[in-house]
Amino acid sequence: MAVALAVQPSLSKLVLKPAQVGQGYVQLQRTDGHGTAQRTLDLCGTNNYASEALRTSRLQVDYLKPNGPYRISNEVVVYKPGGAARAMREVAQHAASCPSTPIVVEGQKATFKITKLSDSKLIKGYVAVQIRETAVVKGKKVTGTYYAVYQRFGDVLSGVYSYGAPTPEQELLCLRAAEASARNLRGNHGSGGLPA
């Protein structure tokens, strides 16, 4: 008797289309956007995510509007069975327990302030956060604010990230893109509930 093999999701069909991000946005390929050599999870500046070893494929692309102040990135990752659920548990734990004291990130001391965000249109179990990072680079204090939204459907995880000025518009742009990503994930798996 033949055994049916699981169909590998098409990552190029799951990543956001430029129009899903916003009018005037264009998609840009990343030199580190293919394969699992590049990390997926590093929230709170840490790299102790055991789920990283469970990834099987990954695609990340960026979106820019010419002369626009914001950049969006969408990362879609396929995991071994149970891996995406584990990744979500890990990222939720790191979001909740990120220390308020400085930690060393890539040789620089950095402090993270993570604020949770809410959006009822995202997939149940999502993690959406604003990250305010303060570091000292070459003797100068540098502060940046960015956004990250993680959600999964079955063994596929999507991360949507936004960089730019820390404004309500940037937050809204990231959440709207994450809502579109949720539709992509659900559409790829049919209309049923969240797979275990």
The CATH architecture name reads 3-Layer(aba) Sandwich
Shape: globular
Distance between the termini: 26 Å
Number of strands: 8
Q: Would you identify the regions where 5 or more consecutive residues have pLDDT less than 50?
A: 1-5, 190-196
Helical percentage:
10-25%
Strand order of the largest sheet: 1-2-3-8-7-6-5-4
Average per-residue pLDDT, rounded, comes to: 89
Please tell me how large the radius of gyration is: 17 Å
CATH topology: Protein Transport Mog1p, Chain A
The structural class is: alpha+beta
Structural domains: how many: 1
How is this structure best summarized?
By secondary structure, this protein is α+β, with helices and mostly antiparallel strands. The chain has helices at 11-14, 18-21, 83-97, 168-188, and strands at residues 26-34, 55-64, 71-79, 103-105, 108-116, 127-137, 140-153, 156-163.
Can you give a write-up of this model?
The protein has 196 residues and is of the alpha+beta class. The protein has a single domain (26-188), classed as 3-Layer(aba) Sandwich (Protein Transport Mog1p, Chain A), CATH 3.40.1000. The chain is built from four helices and eight strands. The chain has helices at 11-14, 18-21, 83-97, 168-188, and strands spanning 26-34, 55-64, 71-79, 103-105, 108-116, 127-137, 140-153, 156-163. It has an eight-stranded antiparallel sheet with strand order 1-2-3-8-7-6-5-4, sandwiched between helices. A hairpin with a 2-residue loop joins strand 7 (140-153) and strand 8 (156-163). The longest helix has 21 residues, at 168-188. The radius of gyration is 17 Å and the shape is globular. The model is unreliable at 1-5 and 190-196 (pLDDT under 50).
